[in-house]
Amino acid sequence: MAVRLGDDAPNFTAESTEGTIDFHEWKGDSWAVLFSHPKDYTPVCTTELGRVAELKPEWEKRGVKVIGLSVDGLGSHKGWDGDIKDVTGHSLNYPLIADEDRKVADLYDMIHPNANDTLTVRTVFVIGPDNKVKLNLTYPASTGRNFDEILRVIDSLQLTANHKVATPSDWKQGEDVIISPALSDDEATAAFPAGFEAKKPYLRVTKQPS
Ligand code: BEZ
After folding, report:
1. For an engineered disulfide with 206, which of 4, 76, 107, 196 has Cβ 3.0 to 4.6 Å away?
2. Ligand 1 mean position to 141 CA, how many Å?
3. 164 is catalytic
């Protein structure tokens, strides 16, 4: 059964490069990114895992805990870390789950048999402080992910969790936002003292609330 937006992110216990992890306990009330990669000692995955490590200050700035997963074993994960450091300049600084029995991969539907019947696809789950799934992305093995885009989405998720706004196409932190259509004009005027521009009655733009 697929894990979809708004669902509870299922809990699990798994071995990782940072010891045994109870997912919900490890996550606490933080935001979290749970991502799978197809296989250790493969080229695209090497670049991805180094990039996630390089972005540690960005995850921390947003209060996000990151955890990776593949169906390789702990020995493989730990040996591969040296290559990740050689290639990208960054060692793993987040736990990597060794899901050899595919327990977590099955729980989160990370193996797509028509793509590959044994390896996990490149899945990303962003999970909120309430343990609900806020974002689910799936990429094929041949395409490395853009983790700047995942940070951008987290910025939008965190903003829209706290304010009655939505973010337009290609929005970035600091740019104008869209007022929720659920607010009347009077309510919008009260909620956004900077005012708004109605490009259409249903599309009202305002400064990003802080
Ligand atoms: C890669 O990371 O390059 C990769 C992983 C699995 C299959 C194909 C490519």
Report:
1. 196
2. 5
3. no
